[in-house]
Amino acid sequence: MNIYLDSARTEDAEQAARLGFVGGVTTNPTLMRKVTADPLQHAKELLAATDFAEFYYQPSGRYASMLEEAETAWSLDPDRVVLKIPATPRGAALARHLADRNVPVALTAAQSPNAMAVAEALGCVAVIPYLDRAWRDQRTPSDLVARLARVRKGSTRIVAASVKHAGQFAAAFAEGADAVTAPLAVLEELLAHPAALEAERAFAAEYGEG
């Protein structure tokens, strides 16, 4: 299991690194737009700010060519950058071009089990379903992660996104996600169960700590 931070804020990435259990960062154009007018430059800064093993970047359309933006983002750190490409007909064509160059690609907005079959045909390393959106959208099965897992035949990972609270986080893993990405506030609440905190305080009090 892998846990990622879903944010483009450098401060969030630095705080997530201190949690100890976060292994990567996922971003998207909406998150980037909140913090920068130059997504590629900001991606470079985020990569430099942490040593996370994986960094997911989605071409924003901010520059002249989506393909050139994708290739430039990947070239920032080929060992760590995974490119997020929408699970659409247009996105599949771009993903094919990148995958043929051995660039790691994840199909994002994978809101149908069909996306898994397409991702495996393309050679994508992952699919990224939006969990909270699936729960709220009647056009999408609420057990989307489980359906993606049932379709999978190879090693394509399921990275559950759009996770709004700790309950959704656990549900994603229970349904078969290989990784979950969530905002910093959700990550910070994962181990904040009152009973666990009470036990910690009680143990510390045994020898006068705290």
Biggest sheet statistics? 8 strands, parallel, barrel
Give the helix tally.
11
Quaternary state, please?
single chain
| Content of β-strand | 15-25%
**Structural classification:** alpha/beta
Round the Cα radius of gyration to an integer and report it. 18 Å
Written as H for each helix and E for each strand, in order along the chain, the element string is EHEHHEHEHEHEHHEHEHH
Mean pLDDT: 95
Percent of residues in helices comes to: 40-55%
Uncertain segments are none
Description:
There is one protein chain. The protein is α/β, with parallel strands linked by helices and 210 residues long. The protein is built from 11 helices and 8 strands. An 8-stranded parallel beta barrel has the order 1-2-3-4-5-6-7-8, surrounded by 6 helices. α5 (89-99) links the parallel β4 (81-86) and β5. The longest helix has 13 residues, at 194-206. The two termini are 32 Å apart. The relative contact order is 0.13.
Can you give me a brief rundown of this structure?
It is built from 11 helices and 8 strands. The chain is of the alpha/beta class and 210 residues long. The longest helix has 13 residues, at 194-206.
